[in-house]
TrEMBL record:
Keywords: DNA-binding, Transcription, Transcription regulation. It comes from the Bacteria. Transmembrane segments: none annotated. Signal peptide: none annotated. InterPro entries: LTTR (IPR050176), LysR_HTH_N (IPR000847), LysR_subst-bd (IPR005119), WH-like_DNA-bd_sf (IPR036388), WH_DNA-bd_sf (IPR036390). Belongs to the LysR transcriptional regulatory family. It comes from Oceanidesulfovibrio indonesiensis. This is LysR family transcriptional regulator.
Amino acid sequence: MDLSYDLLRTFIAVAETRNFTRAGELVNRTQSAVSQQIKRLEGELSQELFRRGARSVSLTPYGEAFVPHARRLLKAHEETVAALSRPDVAGVVRLGAPDDYAAYFLPGILERFASVCPLVQVEMRCESSTALLAALDSDELDLVIRTNITPSLPSRVIAQEPIIWATSASHCTHEVDPLPLAVFAEGCDYRAWGIQALENIGRPYRIAYTSPNIMGIQAAITAGLAVAPMGLHSMPPGARILGEEEGFPQLPSATVSLHRRTENGGDAVESLACYVVEAFRERRLDLPPERSVA
């Protein structure tokens, strides 16, 4: 069975665009060449991967199931090539990220990065976006992942995430007056957005719990002690989302961006930046975590 890199790359391009012409633009091939590659891959697998329509294509059930396997094969190939082509990359990269993103994304990012650049030392800092940007400006960090309503320059937008009101699914905390809130410390965007939204509708509230990390916020929610504004991906097990029908105003979506000091270059910084971007591209932030109970 020939599952070459080119065939898998073309398959993922078609799966993402659902269009042979647009997929061809991504992989620098003509529409007919893309079609031939997909037919070849389907022949190798003895399975139909796409249903062809007049203007678009859709994945078959087998195609849907094959997508994650194809992605893993592509990643393994790319990481092997990177490791062999840059075996001597060394140095220190200073990366900053808000606590909730650090817990969710960084284990996978750091594991993959270490397999390609084992000689690079990564220094981590987990603080609010405001504090991290200040550290970047003072040359204490090389890369910063931060959230905001609108992206600031210079930066690269890497994701969009809904900010939601989370409460315990087995308590009636959201009915308490004044509303008990669990929030990060001053300087956190989510805290500011949540408080402003409640003040805009005249809803009484009190800061019941503050925590420097996401685990403290999640604990207060799960115990039924507070309601919290948080990123959708951080919603803990046993929690549910509060909506406008229950009197909770919609919160803005967060723009997740990657900031980098332009003068801090080098292969190590560039490589880690690429892994950060890829990790956020692969994991959707507009869906609740599978472990959560809605």
